[in-house]
Amino acid sequence: MQNLKKLIELVAYKKQLDLTRAEPNFTDNEWLLDAIISEVEEVKEEIKPNNRAYLEDELSDILWGWLSLVENLKGEGLVGSHEAVFKRALKKYEERILPLKGTSEDHAIWKEVKRRQKENLQREKLMEEGSQCKKTTK
Questions:
Q1: Domain ranges of the chain
Q2: Confidence (pTM)
Q3: In this predicted structure, what is the pLDDT of residue 136?
């Protein structure tokens, strides 16, 4: 996990450089998403035997793109932090995976947990919108 922390710090440093240079692409969410999609295509091409170095290199490009996107969204106030996204992902998948039993019931369990999670997300969004309304009326 130490490497991940260093990568996040490097992404933040790179974003500051991009802002200093007024580099429009590297701070544009759409461009970053397109770059990630492009890297996914490159990963597909590298999935083959005896190709670990190239595959890991391309996977690292997806990771870099994702970290850069989150850094940009964080700067715009659209997400809290990389850690907030990691925390949400952990909670989401623990809730979905830990109840599974390795049986034919798993699909139904997954579907039910996902349904509840969507309801909770909707409530969270409504609360967030409500708190934003209070801030703007003050």
A1: 2-80
A2: 0.88
A3: 65
